[in-house]
Amino acid sequence: MSGKLTVKLLLLIIFMLFPGGCKESAGENEKTAAEAEKTKAELAKMKIALEKTQSESNELNEGLSETLEEFEKIKSELALAARTKDSLQEQVNELTAQRDEALTKARDTQALANELAGQLKEKTEEVKALEELNEELLTTIGKLEEQIEAASGQVTIEMHEEPNEQP
Fold it and tell me: Domain map of the chain by residue range?
C-alpha cells in the first residue's frame, strides 16, 4: 500500500513542478489541477487509512505483548507445576518403598508370630503331658506311700508279734 502511495506522491510532485509548459492550454492546466486535487484527496484518504492501520497495528502489538506476557506467566506456572509433580512423584516413590518395607516386616513378623505360636502350642502340649505325668506320678507315689504304710504297719505288727513268740 505504501508503494502505491509513494508512486502517487511522486507523480503529484512531478505534475506540480512541471505543470506542462507553455504550450499547454488552460483546459489542460485545469485538468492537471483537478488530477492534483484528486490525488491530494486520495493521499488524504491513504493517510487516514495508514493512521488507522498503524493504530490497529499498535493495538495488535499491545495485544501481542499481553499475550506474550501471559504465555511467559503460564510457561513459568507450568515449569513450577512440573517441579511440584516431580517432587510429589519422589514422595510417592519414597512412601511406596516404605509401604513395601513395612509390608515385608509385617509378613516377617506374622511368620515369626506363627512360628512362636506353634512353639507355644508344642510347649503347652509338653507341659500338659508333663502335668499329666506328674499327676500319675503323684498318684503312684500316694499309692506307694499307702502300700508302705500298710506294709510298715504289718511289719510293726509282725515285729511286735515276733518277740512274743520267742519266750
Answer: 2-165
Residue type for 22, please?
C
- E strands of the chain, at which residues? none
pLDDT tens digits along 61-71: 999 999 999 99
Give the mean pLDDT of 59-87.
94
The residue assigned the cell 504304710 is 149
Name the percent of the chain in helix, strand, coil, to the closest 5.
95, 0, 5
The three cell numbers locating residue 29: 492546466
Under a CB-based contact definition with an 8 Å cutoff, are residues 23 and 36 in contact?
A: no
pLDDT at 167: 46
DSSP string, 21-36: -SSS-HHHHHHHHHHH
